[in-house]
Amino acid sequence: MDDQAKALISGVIASLDCSRDLLRTVLVEDYIPYEDIIASLPTNGSPDQKYMVARKWTRWPTMGPERRTGITIHHTCSHSPLGTARYCSLPVRAGGKGYPSIQYHFWVSAADNCPIFLCAPVEWGIWHDNTGAYQETIAVGMAGQLHLSRPPDEQIGTAVRLIVWLMQEYDIPLENVRGHRDRWRNRSGQPLTKCPGWDHTSWRNDFFNLLNTGVIG
Q: The whole model's pTM is what?
């Protein structure tokens, strides 16, 4: 990790009380701030979601690092990556969404110490924020129904830690970090989803103030 990246992350650490120790671990050389659980999650080799069927796709398109241009924040409305992956990959005819896999690359848990899970390869062009068939954004899901209750401070801090790391890894500018509802809007500019819930439980400003501190340093 270069000195500039360390300085950015040090800015996040300096701004936090609750997640200081968690964020400090990012400064370890070549540290990967997540647990890979991809192999434990179900997938579907014959997706029957109508738009995938129309394209004759049996898997997500592959997007190289140079096409990873943004990050989209979601709430998962669940605390189980396994349960969510089952629902996303279950065929439509069986009551699921009929996708090839879960719709989040990363999952930020609200459990003790707020672990981060890698749920799908970052190169998978997962459909998650309604921005087209070839989605160039990385999906970060924060566990919970965050339109009903504000996430714990530690979960916000952990999500910021992950996002600062992703911004450095993929050279993503701050202006390309947005919530789902900031990307999915009607022609009048009105949001078509509550996700990730930050405008309903008042944590948008806290999230971006913390993120700005980390990026501007």
A: 0.85
